From TrEMBL:
The keyword Metal-binding does not apply. The lineage of its organism: Bacteria, Pseudomonadati, Bacteroidota, Chitinophagia, Chitinophagales. Keywords: Isomerase, Signal. One of its GO terms (molecular function) is isomerase activity. It comes from Ilyomonas limi. This is Sugar phosphate isomerase/epimerase.
Length: 293
């Protein structure tokens, strides 16, 4: 559960339009602005190119993918990569599942077709591949986390052979101790620091009652990717950046300690149209000195 004292302190301290012409119509963006495509997942299913075009028009120019099954929303990897490139969207990372929850039946997971997934990412020029999520049955014991660490190391070795950095995305469930051991620390200590980096989801780490800066200092250089999203006061639900209680300034002040290279705006849910939410977050970020480059 969220430790409210910490959060209080944090609060205070057109498929019909061709792709190329859309890209030409966009103003140049001098700084990176990333977004995790999970934010607009329902839109992508209805209108893939039109939805990506809307992101580009908002000024987002780096993306993190998800839902790989050998294709991306029915597009072959190279075809999808070309769509993004023509729109001015640079693919930085992609998310994957372990495959443990269904015995390795799901394609495009660490247990099923991992080499092909790596080959596809390499062909697309994607520099990061991330283990995104654990199903409940994958996180009930320290033994499962130890097995996961071995799996992550192995996946990282495969990625490294193609000059891709592998990593693991945090939520809040890795922080409550099991038999006196914090699973997130177990993963950090049991994985190779070069083969397995961490994607820090600031929202979920804070919701677990943990200060992400403490982890940046304890494990410097292990956090090259971040998910950046805000938290509503009271409900502790997702909020547009600047509309919630998280003070990002002291967190971004430690970005060099963390080893930050890229970060992505993400909003899992919203009471608004999600493109409107992304526009609000974009406007907040433009007022801040969070840019990398």
């Amino acid at each position: 559960m969220l430790r409210r004292n910490f959060v209080k302190n944090v609060a205070l301290s057109a498929a019909a339009v061709s792709v190329a012409p859309l890209a030409k119509a966009m103003p140049p963006i001098s700084q990176p602005l990333g977004v995790q495509l999970w934010t607009i997942r329902s839109y992508l299913q209805k209108d893939l190119i039109g939805s990506l075009s809307r992101l580009a028009k908002l000024g987002y120019n780096e993306v993190e993918l998800f839902d790989y099954d050998g294709t991306y929303w029915g597009k072959q990897p190279k075809e999808f990569s070309k769509i993004c490139k023509d729109l001015g969207l640079k693919i930085i990372s992609s998310h994957y599942m372990t495959g443990r929850h269904d015995g390795g039946k799901l394609p495009g997971t660490l247990l099923n077709g991992w080499q092909k997934a790596v080959d596809d990412s390499a062909a697309m020029g994607v520099p990061y591949m991330i283990c995104a999520w654990l199903y409940k049955e994958e996180r009930t014991s320290l033994d499962l986390y130890r097995q996961l660490a071995e799996m992550l190391n192995k996946a990282g070795e495969t990625c490294s052979k193609s000059n891709i950095q592998f990593g693991y995305h945090s939520h809040n469930f890795e922080f409550p101790p099991i038999d006196g051991v914090v699973p997130y620390d177990l993963l950090l200590q049991s994985t190779d620091k070069d083969l397995v980096k961490m994607e820090a989801d600031l929202f979920w780490i804070i919701k677990a009652g943990v200060n992400p800066v403490d982890y940046f200092k304890k494990y410097p250089g292990r956090f090259p990717l971040w998910h950046v999203k805000d938290m509503e006061s009271g409900s502790e639900q997702f909020a547009e950046l600047g509309r919630g209680i998280i003070d990002f300034d002291p967190i971004f002040a430690e970005r060099k300690t963390a080893g930050l290279q890229h970060w992505f705006v993400e909003q899992d849910q919203s009471t608004r149209d999600l493109f409107e939410s992304l526009e609000i977050s974009r406007d907040y970020v433009k007022k801040k000195n969070y840019w990398l480059g």
